[in-house]
Specification:
about 350 residues; alpha/beta; Rossmann fold; 8-stranded mixed sheet; 11 helices; 14 strands; elongated
């Protein structure tokens, strides 16, 4: 029997050309739609900032343009619940799948208590941290929670004392390596915020250039620390070594990865780290903290102390680069298959 699934998410792509809004979720929805066994509707709470429904690869997306605080947010939550009731009246909803343990999960939980609808929540990021107020308000032990890595599962259990099932998040496909000329020595990708520690990235490049005078490093992303980081590069006289690419479309990010040797990921937290899987798929080596799916291997070195970054990067940069890696790479098809099994058996 075809399942009628409604997904609730904080944001979703504004159209098929929007590749920067939560790319992993886009891949998941398209692959899920292609399975043919699910009727799928997406309710997007915050982004895009419109209330006009639209089609995304054959999937109906209903945005609510949620912004503001307090009373306004409460009113929109009620609108979402009313929309769910309307959808359910038209054709019974079998499952609600909320992404992130936030207002998406709150709305999904309330509706599942009012109507006989299965509800599961996938935690996708920092929603496992103690600062998450929704995690304190919701009855987590009575909810079905999915985490995306063993690391995230352990964090959830440690911070809130609840267990979860792990379903790894995969990438859409693995590319064939055709670029043996990797002009970028070190690449950093992510939001330019304090958590990602791009200041440490730049400090490391400043030390690495002593051993690699022609060092070329690239930073992809935007954020509130952009001006600070650019000033830092200028003060350290690294203008010829560190280049800012800003926010670029996802295909361009993957293209840049195929021209880079090493991903230096200085972030202090990752629930999964899709960037890790994509980097491995593009034949890159990695230096990172032990976050998300990080696992030491010949191509992946883990640092515990900041002082060990340069040593790890040096070891991998001095090694003859090989495109072919043996590190396991999760597939989005496996991710979808795991959720399909859940939808069909629960």
């Amino acid at each position: 029997m075809t399942k009628n699934l409604v997904v609730i998410t904080p944001g979703f792509a504004s159209g098929e050309q929007d590749t920067t809004c939560i790319p992993p979720l886009q891949d998941f929805m398209v692959t899920l739609k292609q399975s043919g066994s699910i009727k799928l509707t997406i309710l997007s709470l915050q982004y895009p900032n419109t209330t006009t429904s639209y089609d995304y690869h054959g999937i109906r997306v209903i945005p609510f343009g949620l912004n503001g605080r307090y009373v306004k947010r409460l009113i929109i939550w009620i609108r979402v619940l009313l929309k769910l009731r309307k959808l359910n009246k038209k054709e019974r909803i079998t499952h609600i799948h909320s992404f992130w343990l936030n207002e998406s999960a709150l709305i999904g939980h309330i509706f599942s208590r009012l109507y006989p609808v299965r509800h599961l929540t996938t935690l996708m990021g920092q929603d496992v941290l103690p600062t998450n107020l929704f995690a304190r308000w919701l009855p987590l032990k009575k909810m079905t929670l999915i985490t995306v890595s063993d690391f995230q599962k352990a964090q959830l259990n440690h911070n809130f004392g609840v267990s979860s099932e792990v379903i790894h998040w995969g990438i859409k496909r693995q590319v064939e390596f055709t670029n043996n000329m990797r002009e970028i020595d070190v690449l950093g990708v992510g939001s330019l915020i304090k958590l990602k520690r791009f200041d440490l990235f730049i400090e490391s490049i400043n030390l690495l250039k002593k051993s690699f005078p022609k060092m070329k490093a690239a930073i992809v992303g935007k954020g509130i620390e952009e001006d600070f980081l650019k000033n830092m590069v200028k003060e350290l006289n690294l203008e010829n070594h560190v280049f800012f690419y800003g926010e670029v479309a996802r295909p361009k990010v993957l293209e840049l990865m195929s021209t880079a040797k090493l991903l230096l990921h200085t972030s202090e937290f990752e629930s999964y780290g899709m960037i890790f899987t994509e980097a491995l798929a593009q034949g890159m080596s990695i230096v990172s903290r032990k976050v998300g799916i990080a696992k030491k291997s010949m191509n992946w070195l883990i640092f515990e102390k900041d002082g060990a970054i340069v040593e790890s990067c040096t070891a991998l940069l001095n090694r003859v680069h090989e495109n072919e890696h043996t590190d396991p790479i999760h597939s989005i098809h496996d991710t979808v298959e795991s959720y399909l099994n859940y939808y069909q058996t629960n």
